[in-house]
């Protein structure tokens, strides 16, 4: 399928999700740039197409929404690295021409078959950096895809419900969440120094 205007196509298939349609946390502005959204959308069409191995496509799984949430939690350095990865993949086909006519175009403006060929080239390249580009891109897209609850359920990898039991060791660590508060309240206060001494002597906590 020819994609003369990648952003328009990505919007039509639902991969680009406006902030107003994000659902929970919709008040947070989108973090991914327009270029990142277009590139990730184009790759998702190849990796998770409609009618693929799983019934749920990348558009159905709202990959960009999950990726945006993930990137929002990263530090500035990692965000820049993702931005550089996107630019490298988007412009790589200008130097590594895709097969067929007009193969020297930005990745998002190639046909689906040309995109698939470019990704396969990166995956099987003898050059380490090109393979690393593919591996990094696949990791991000797969993470966004598996974050969808219906996809996880279809693969049988839905997270299990863990019932946390209070432990005396909870007194050794800083409180991380509300559960830690209730857990500490259910145990006797521990003096960190005494607890570590007991462990060092081969004793037991409690």
Describe this structure as you would to a colleague.
- This protein has 206 residues and is mainly alpha-helical.
- The protein has 2 domains: 6-155, no CATH class; 168-200, no CATH class.
- The chain is built from 9 helices and no strands.
- Mean pLDDT is 74; it is low at 1-26 and 182-187.
Question: How would you summarize this macromolecular structure in one to three sentences?
Answer:
With 206 residues, the chain is an all-alpha fold. It has helices at residues 6-12, 34-47, 63-72, 76-92, 112-124, 128-146, 149-155, 178-185, 192-200.
Characteristic terms for this protein:
0% strand, disordered N terminus, globular, 206 residues, 9 helices
Topology:
Blueprint: H1 6-12, H2 34-47, H3 63-72, H4 76-92, H5 112-124, H6 128-146, H7 149-155, H8 178-185, H9 192-200
Spatial separation of the terminal alpha carbons: 66 Å
**Portion in strands:** under 5%
Q: Return the structural class.
A: mainly alpha
Main sheet summary:
none
């Amino acid at each position: 399928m020819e994609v003369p205007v990648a952003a328009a196509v990505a919007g039509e298939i639902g991969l680009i999700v406006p902030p107003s349609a994000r659902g929970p946390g919709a008040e947070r502005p989108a973090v991914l740039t327009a270029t990142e959204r277009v590139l990730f959308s184009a790759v998702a069409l190849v990796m998770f197409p409609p009618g693929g191995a799983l019934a749920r496509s990348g558009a159905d799984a709202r990959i960009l929404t999950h990726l945006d949430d993930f990137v929002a939690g990263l530090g500035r350095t990692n965000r820049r690295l993702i931005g550089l990865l996107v630019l490298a993949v988007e412009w790589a086909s200008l130097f590594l021409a895709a097969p067929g006519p007009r193969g020297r175009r930005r990745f998002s403006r190639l046909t689906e078959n040309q995109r698939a060929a470019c990704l396969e080239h990166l995956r099987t390249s003898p050059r380490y950096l090109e393979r690393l580009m593919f591996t990094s891109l696949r990791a991000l897209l797969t993470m966004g895809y598996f974050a969808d609850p219906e996809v996880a359920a279809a693969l049988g990898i839905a997270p299990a419900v863990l019932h946390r039991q209070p432990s005396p060791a909870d007194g050794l660590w800083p409180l991380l969440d509300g559960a830690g508060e209730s857990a500490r309240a259910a145990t006797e206060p521990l003096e960190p120094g005494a607890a570590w001494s007991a462990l060092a002597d081969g004793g037991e906590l409690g």
